[in-house]
Structures are given as structure tokens and as C-alpha cells.
Amino acid sequence: MANPSNPLIVQSDRTLLMDVHAEGAEEARSAIMPFAELEKSPEHIHTYQITPLSLWNAASAGLTPEHIKRVLETYSRYPVPQSILDGFADTMARYGKIKLVADISDSAEANAAAPETSAPATTAAKSAPIDSSAPASLPDTLLLVCESEAIRAELRSSKSLAKYLIPAGEAFRLKLVNRGTVKRELIKLGWPVQDMAPLAAGEPLEIAFRTHTGAGKPFAPRDYQVEAARSVVGDGGPGSGFGVVVLPCGSGKTVVGMTVMTMLKTNTLILTTNVAAVHQWIDELLDKTSLVPEQIAEYTGDEKSVAPVTVATYQILTWRPNKDADFPHFKLFRERSWGLIIYDEVHMLPAPVFRVTAELQAVRRLGLTATLVREDRAEDAVFSLVGPKRYDVPWKDLETKGWIAEALCTEIRLDLPENLKIPYAVANQRSKYRIASENPLKIPVVQQLIENHSEDRILVIGQYLSQLSELARVLQAPLITGQTPHAEREAIYRRFKQGELRLIVVSKVANFAIDLPDASMAIQVSGSFGSRQEEAQRLGRILRPKNRNSYFYTLVSRFTVEEEFAANRQKFLAEQGYKYTIQHWTEDELA
Fold it and tell me: What is the pLDDT of residues 35-52, one digit of tens each?
């Protein structure tokens, strides 16, 4: 029934238009987030798109077409087209039409019976405890069970699957090593697999949380951290033990990972983005769990050792002598009987690791991220190789409850100086972006902002090293880039945490997995061509809870390509419910 005051307009092409000024817009945004993706976010009307992948993520999380129908009808300004509702049901119904199950027998009769025996496994598992004593070894083959002959015919005709699938009665047999590869090929064909096959428990490892941190402060995981961990671990039965948790930076994703570790109690491999993040994981594990130093190892360019808990970087895993060589450090995945792999910042998972991930589908796996947006558009690979999204909570919800700081986001637009307007006009696209990004008027703006926020601990973040070097010189602040030795980086971070420094200039090396809890302000002088994932990470640097607001400033050159890229990055802020203001600063005001 039509309600002209409602915020949502639902269109038959699966596009949702959100009037951000309408009553109930905030509630509607939270309600549609589990099954819709933000596409555009200008001042008044935000555009969301419902995609097959967003619907499959919703289906894997237990949402039904009826739930989506209720949400749309509750918030829609006009009657929801019936055709779109039918389409949602058809798309979501594809999830579960193909199941991956244990190969219980080599006989054709057992294979033919697999469709009947696989379905009750979910029900039986609901009351089963997590079995950490399960054997580490698994059968070498699995069965792919299809609901209908039509689906089986489609799979038989697929050239991309021919080398992996062996017809076996009313199912297909595949090698365990091809588990992830087959799932990814099937999702490309529009068939998300419901993975019900067993997972190896790995070698046991006793691990529990301390009641007090190393500094003597009381500690216990927060309710939402435990809920997120349980959403992945599940009941220990088929279809559980893998997936992605989406939580804001500053909300304690590391604690979610450690909570999963305490639930599974098994040898764990943790992969993260850089050496500083490796050391932070190790520090957190020693500070908050019963693990001792001898049980934790670092596998990086600096040190390569293996222990029951091993923390490694994506970079070391993807290193090879030349582009035609093998990846020598992939052997780490087989060094121990891992029972859990944690992919920190899973949206940064490098493409070469996808190949190994496909071989490790028999291991429980947890992806942690602040945003599932990948700049290479490989979200489907994360879904099929790491797992579906199991838990997601809006940033604003945690902000309201005081778990992360309130953020005030401002975009400051500046004109290009007259002497740069002609060079900009005749430059190619990439050079235009750099000229706009390195607008020299940004330097006095940064100085003014720092002066205006004399009580804040500030990060100045950028893309171009020449620009950052000049800022560090003018501001008389330490500079951290990819070339800064790890020991020097960590010394600067430590001084910042201890209050000896209130200002650091950093390149994109500080985007990921860096814990600077006292930072309350970030000034972004240049970014990576409209990267939404980068915006997530940079905003997250200042969202650790504290007794003050956080400020996030982005400096943009007016009437340049930088404005276009900034608009794309702003999608992330709108996705999370943040409002941002736009200010115009002129050269005269800076004089």
C-alpha cells in the first residue's frame, strides 16, 4: 500500500532509491543492508542495488524472500513490483540447489542415495557439540549433489568443470583438493554451493581468554564479538566453521578471531597485511589469552618460524623469485595440521592466495574485514573460497552504544592555483589525478586544521611520497612510508601511543591493521583513485572508543577528477550511515 512519507522507492530493475531526508531513512538503511549494495550516494537520493551475490549472502545468513519482501513493503513509498519479489525468490532458491557433501561410499548405490542422506545432516548437527577430537585426515573425494537432472545436465556440459567433476550416479565426485576451485567455477555459472562437507579439526591446542590483560585490566570479549564468532563456528556440524565477519575498524575484529580460536582450540594460521600487524596480533594473543611465547611464531620477511599459532603476511606468501616461478612459501600451509586459518583484512586477500585457499577448503576459515568491497570485484571469490558473510553490524549501531567513537566527516574543497590550471588541463588522466592530489594549497589547510585541533592526536594520510615528505618537513613530524624500517615504524607508533607524539604523517602502509587507539583525527590529503576499502581503513584509524569525537577530513581539489574519485569513496561513509559536510576554502582565506 502506497505511503508517500516512506523513504524507499523500489524499482523493477532491482534498484532501490533511498530518500535520505524522509522519516525512517536510517531504519530503512539498516534493514536493507543485509541484502542490498550501495551504488551511488549524492546529497539527497542514495541508490542501492540488489545483486545475486547480495541475495546469496542473505540466503546463507538465513534470510528468506519473505523477510526481504516484508522489509521492502514496510519502507517502500509505492507498491513493490510483484515481479521483483518473484525474482528474489528465484535467485535465493539457487542457494542450496547444489550441495557439497561427504563421499560416504565408493559404490554407485551410495552415490545415488547421497541426495537423501545429505539433507538430514543439517538437522542432526544442530544439537551436536563442536568436535575438536575429529580426525585431522579426511576422505580424498567429495560428492556434489544436485537437486535436479536439469542442473546435472548443465554441469555436465560446462567445459570449465569437465576436468574436476566425475559423474557418480545422481551426483558428481571431485577430489578434495579441487573443493574451492569447483565452488568458484559454480558461482560464476550462477550456482552458489551450499558446502556441507566435513572439515578437519586440526591438531588440538588448549587456548582460553585471560580474565585480566597483561596490564591488569579486566577483560572479556564484548557481546557482539562473541555473537560474531558463534555465527562462524556454528554448531560444529555440516555447513558451519567458515565465513566472513564484517565489523568496523576499532570494534575489535582481532578479539573476534581470538574468540573463534578459544572455541575451536586448534592449531591456527593467521594471515595479515604487514609485519606491524603481525606483531600486533602476537602482542594481543599474549596479552589476552593463555598462550605463551613458545606457542606463537612469526613468518615474515624478517623471521620464518612455525608454531601452533603462526602469524604470517600475505606479502611473504605471494613472494617468488620471478613471475614464472612457484611460490616457495606456500609450503607454510602444509607445515602443520592447521585446524583454523584466519584471513585478516580478507578484502585484501591477494589473488595468488586464492589458489592455495582453494586447496585448503578442508580447514575451518574465518575472514575479518571492515568492508567486503574489493577493488578487483572479486567478492564472489571471497564468498566461495573463504565463506559467505556470516555477521555484519552497522558502524553507527556500535557508535550509538559507545563501542566506537562518533565520527564527524568533512570534505574540504580547494581551487587549483592559477599556475597549475593549464598543466592540469593538458595532462592525461593519471597525471590529472596526481596534480589535483598534490595541490600545494593543501599544505596550509593541513596546518590550519592542526592548529584548530590542538587537543587531538592526528594522522596526516596520503598517497604520494613527495607530498608526504614535504608535509612532514613543514609540520616537523615523523614520516612513515613503505621504506621506513619496521623497527623505526614501531618505535614511532609506540611514541604516538605513549603521548610523546601527537602528529604522524603516514602513507598507505597505515591503512591496514594498525592499532593507534588514541588517534582522534585524520586528515586525508590524497587517496587511491576512489577506493572505498581504503576509505574504510582510513576512517577506522580514528574510531577506537574514547571520551571525545573523532574528526575525519578529506582535502579535494575542486573541478578536477579528484572530486569524482572522492564521490566514490564517500559511498563508503554513506553505506555506514555517516553524514559528511562539504566546505569550500579559497586561496584568499589561506593567505
Answer: 988 776 666 888 888 999
HSE at residue 480, side-chain half, CA atoms within 13 A, is 23
Residues 1 and 552 sit within 8 Å (Cβ to Cβ): no
**Which one is predicted more confidently, 397 or 285?**
285
Instruction: Evaluate whether 527 touches 463 at the Cβ level (below 8 Å).
Output: yes
Backbone angles phi, psi at 557, to 5 degrees: -80, 130
Edge to edge, what strands does the sheet with 37-40 contain? 8-10, 15-19, 45-49, 37-40
Residue 82 C-beta-side C-alpha neighbours within 13 Å? 1
Residue (of 368, 407, 386, 429) closest to 562 by Cα position: 429
* pLDDT tens per residue across span 191-223: 999 998 888 889 999 999 999 998 899 999 999
- Contact between 532 and 571 under an 8 Å Cβ cutoff? The reply is yes
Domain end point (choices 41, 68, 93): 93
Give me Rg for the CA atoms of the chain.
Answer: 25
341 and 438 fall within a common domain: no
Range of 417's domain?
A: 400-590
What are the pLDDT digits (tens) for 468-512?
999 999 999 999 988 888 888 889 988 988 889 999 998 877 655
Task: Quote the distance between the C-alpha of residue 463 and its chain's center.
Answer: 21
In a domain, 216, yes or no: no
Q: Taking every pair of C-alpha atoms in the chain, what is the biggest distance, in angstroms?
A: 84
The yes-or-no verdict on residue 106 having pLDDT over 80 is no
Q: Is residue 207 assigned to a domain?
A: no
DSSP 354-413: HHHHHHTTTBEEEEEES----TT--HHHIIIII--EEEE--HHHHHHTTSS--EEEEEEE
Residue 271 dihedral angles phi and psi, to the nearest 5°: -110, 130
Which strands, in side-by-side order, build the sheet including 98-102? 166-168, 171-175, 141-146, 98-102, 194-195
pLDDT digits (tens, 9 = 90+) for 237-272: 888 899 999 887 778 899 999 999 999 999 999 999
Assess whether 530 and 412 both reside in one domain: yes
